[in-house]
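Question: what's this shape?

___
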Amino acid sequence: MTFTLSNSANLGSDPAGLTPAVKLPIGIFDSGVGGLSVLRHIRAQLPQEDLIYFADSGHAPYGDKTEQQVIDRSLAVAGYLLQQGAKALVVACNTATIAAIKALRARYPDLPIVGVEPGLKPAAAISRNGKIGVLATERTLRGDKLLALREQVSSATGATFILQPCVGLVERIEQSAMGSDPLDATSAMLERYIAPLLAQGVDTLVLGCTHYPFVQDAIERTVRAHTAEPVTLVDTGEAVARQLTRLLDAASLRRGGNDAPRLQGYTTAKVEALAQAFTGLLDLHPPVEHLSV
């Protein structure tokens, strides 16, 4: 599928007059397939919108890259999505949000951009005992933005956040989504990361990576194996979709009356892998193309 869209990186720009700005697609990207968990919420919240999903799997994972490497990849992918005429951008990756959202907003100051950050604020609001575990990549947990957010929320609420880097979990979920590794194979890894948090009495777990909602069932099984106390999982995908809706409304860019919204996938890795992830994780079958960006 090919969108006939502007090549301009300006918000809603369409110099050839081919497509009204409101009808342009929303661009969504992640280092891999984890951002599909965010896309799922966006489709539910904005079912009339055309969407482009870019999986930068050929350069994954972002979590073990330097901050500058993540910024460079994010700018490259965002630039491509803007060339396709995207009217808004969703950074559906915690690591990319922490590292690159400032650079993206500086590059495209007129573009609605929504990032994903670990849900520390909602976690503090719902925790009963103020002990909260945060599961995320090493890069996310080392980021100044996350550390500043933790300090801010801790000071305001008295909550204690225990940060748990989940080395290798993104790769394991990618393999599972693409059919090369059973999803239950994550159980031992989750046990290693979650059991120590439960031993410290956390009653809330923040899923600080967009990949992690796809193993929510396995996380819940791990929790039940260690405690009979209720433990709440916090996923910010729905909040991202709501914020995107607010920004589109504010810019008069929200689309209505689209009987056949289109979805297009792009990947820097194997087309078959992303297509299988769409099918296995979301039961969707959009066209997928390979790109070298």
